[in-house]
Here is the input.
Amino acid sequence: MAKEKKVKNGHHYDASDISVLEGLDPVRRRPGMYIGTTGPEGMHHLVWEIFDNSRDEAMGGFCDDIEVVLLPDNRIRVADNGRGVPIDIHKKTKVSALETVMTTLHAGGKFGGEGYKVSGGLHGVGASVVNALSIYCKAEVHKDGGKYIQEYSQGKKKASVKKIGFSKLHGTIITFEPDREVFKDIKFDLNTIINHIRQQAYLVKKLKVSIIDAREWDNKKGLDDSDVFYFRDLGLELPSTSFYFEGGLISLIKYYNKFQKPIHDHIFYIEKELDNVMVEIALQYVDDIVDRIIPFANNIHTAEGGTHVTGFRTALTRTLNTYCKKNEMMKDSEGGFTGDDVLEGLTCVISVKLREIQFEGQTKAKLGSMEAQGAVGTIFGEAFTNFLEENPDEAKAIINKSILALKARKAAKAAKDSVLRKGALEGMTLPGKLADCQSKSAEESELFLVEGDSAGGSAKQGRDRRTQAILPLKGKILNVERARIDKMLASKEIRALVIALGTSIGDTFDLEKMRYHKIIIATDADVDGAHIRTLLLTLFYRYFKQVVDAGYIYIAQPPLYKIKRGKEISYAYSDAEKIKIIGKETDVSEIQAVEEAPTPEGVGVPISPEEESVGKEKSSKIHIQRYKGLGEMNPEELWETTMDPAHRVLKKVNIDDAEEANKVFEILMGSEVPPRKSFIQSNAKLAEIDI
Here is the structure.
């Protein structure tokens, strides 16, 4: 008998070493494979998965009313008046169809047959994944005259499906609470949910969608939401938002461009089917230097694009080049338009619907169906050619916009090449004002962008020299809202930042060369600080979007107050926190506001010998110092409150934050007066004035 072979390290490897994950265990073991991340985006993805199931019912014509409720204890409730999930016994699983779709991967009604002709959910994992990643989940189905429920925890049923009463209604209610073992920071963002659902309401005509924020609901009356189908039927006065649109994509284009100046009034629109692919496109050019392409596939927002976007860009570039050449609107020496030229200032919504749809990845961020590329290219190319021929004035405005972009692109390239030749970006010399860190590892290195030399001096002295670099920014950086790359690189402050980052910029940008994996914006807690912070966020959104996507941008949260009572020192990061520290019942006479800057020892108010001799009664007086800027802190204070990883408060910036900052900046710094006036009037009541 042959002797058993052993591997070199002595470890025996056989079938017993092979793990087989059953049920929903793969989801809990590797949640990122199914929802992308266990951060805020992944947590909100749970809402999209359940909402998409209801939305698919609406796309099929079976539902016209969806309600999303944010409940206390981080629970989400989604109700729709669709057909209701089947509750009869499934032939293969031998359990209820409801239990099957809630507890089994790759089980659903969207793989074939006539249940759904078009749907966004096709992997059959949405509801089951949400269930697997929830500490609590309940499905309530109204169907065939009955009311049925089943509850789950971490993907496992608590009991079988049971009928609890009769009902004349039809539809499904899913309530879930994300599991803290999976999601460490559970906090749903109302604006994120509203923005997502607003898009869906535009895309599905005649669908009513409501969002109710019931997180602060104090249920003293002991009301039970299971007594009603829609939460709104409880008759509570709670913040709510509803959407209902009949204008479709044209209405969505108007919404995106409400603070923009269109260069042509007539919004292009086409809806047509080719080879079983329904294509719907609306677009309008505005006076801006960035593009906004918002693609959807079966009403799923494909943020990473895909074949439908490729088909559109190719057809757009070809159509405008052909029209321009045919009408001799550009010299031969200018060459032709590139894709970037024709996209500048474009706002476009692309929506395709396919029966057998393929996405790249479970999160459905990118469309992979090749038939969409050809259908979009053919339908849009023909329709947009006719649009240009029938609207010569608008065609001229669009062509002139693209010609201007072409010339600006060539000028920007020449300017950048000039800068590169001089070694400003590629040279190894770092900016003189940069106090770099000792570490060469980008993963552990941090770059603090501070406001002015005063804060820069304190930060340089208080930092951890091994991992923390400091770059002071003098004054307010260039407004890049409408600045092209050639003008940007002429700015000393921006050029210093680009060099410090190490990534270069434009078509030579390389994220792999990023020198720091934490870029921390540390500005003062005043109006100027907020302005500088918005300028920086706009810069990153415009020219370093990959850095934002990678999660490398943070905003520091310095304290607003230093509170000293005797020898005890505390820091408050908000007015509410200040009140909590000093106590609501504290007599005003016991509080001394401190205006002057701290002494080198970090004491807000020097204590005289006379005061020291008074005793315990005097020493209990509370001294409050309001920090107006980081420069008022000495190095020790700045380190302790804002720079020390063990105690500081940082807010990670996501692309939605940067996009929102960009939108606000477009309004406040743009050339159009009415949007700016409207914004100021609408938000004036929310302003906090520090006198």
Summary: The CA atoms of residues 180 and 621 lie 42 Å apart.
